[in-house]
Amino acid sequence: MTLPRLQNLAARRIFLDRHALLEAPQGPADSDTLLELITRLGFVQLDSINTVARAHDMILFARKPRYRTQDLKRLYEHDKGLFEHWTHDAAVIPMAFYPHWQMRRDRDAAKLRNQWRSWRRDGFEEQLQTVVEHIRKVGPCGSSDVGQNEKRGSGGWWDWHPSKTALEYLWRTGTLHVVKRENFQKRYDLTERSIDPQMWAPNAGLSEAETVAWCCASALDRLGFATSGEIAAFWAHVTAAEAKNWCAQELKSGTIEEVEITGADGTLKRCFARPDLQNDTAADTAAPARVRVLSPFDPALRDRKRAKFLFGFDYRIEVFVPQAKRVFGYYVFPLLQGDHMVGRVDMKAFRNEDTLRIHALWPEQGVAWGKGRQAAFEAELDRVRRLAGVSKIEFAPDWLKAPSAHQF
Predict the structure, then answer these.
(1) At 85, phi and psi to the nearest 5?
(2) Is the pTM of this model over 0.70?
């Protein structure tokens, strides 16, 4: 049987549209607008690295350049429009989705006990009730407020003290709720006094079948087209087998169909999609010509294999690679222009010097870095330095490198 086929340009445009990168980056960044954007994306990953701005700020800024850090803080902490939990990593998620995390919390309850017994500090289970009673009595607290008499390690995830581990376990499994962050440190309170009972009460939960169906359908809608494995990985809630079964059922009922997607190198990949995807208006919509700096954790790039297949953009973050073995740099930002990935830039904001310093830029193979693209890049840098809170931009000597043909 001949399957519907999407050519690469159409596939890229549909994918960018689903990630709010096909339209012009403009408009307000008020709470309602941000919540609508995050709902469209599904979630925004949190990360502490702040070479220019933190990942969540860069993700929202790339789509709403009027965005500033306090906008997300207001939506999350004051308006309570978001909650924090895990997808593939820590993320802020629309509060309306909270019931769909009950399955994750239930599954984590057993899994994390077994995992953390083996590689966390001994004794965290003995601290669970103590931590709950402490928070019930004194209110929201962080890891530094509990376990005062416990041995403290480095503070890294591999070296939590028992009460810190208890905090994380109680949060991951639903007893506690992260109400805010101070200096990027989580503050926990009891879920029962932080969230509307209609959201968190045991009888408010959905069945596993309902959650699996929601996870798979909402993932496909946010990806545009995907394999069952990509659907499972989107929220990281459902198993590969559950996603595969959902696809088979929906395919049989006609709510999805199989399509062929053409990769950047001309290869074909079979995916699932909603019927008639090839006639999606996004396929014929040209993306804005301005350059955008993306976070390494941008949802459009989270799946590195998908980014390589669709855009021919082979990327990895080298934070955990020893310096001598790095190909590009510690924290290198991808550059999007139109519907192409055009380069990657190593830059850092030196706030004590009031300067955004550009260390190096590598155009992608086949990308000419002429005056027009340089002007578009400089215009984006001017926007980024305002987000970073500095007033000057400085280019290092020999900052413009030869086009990169490196394949990780």
Answers:
(1) -160, -160
(2) yes
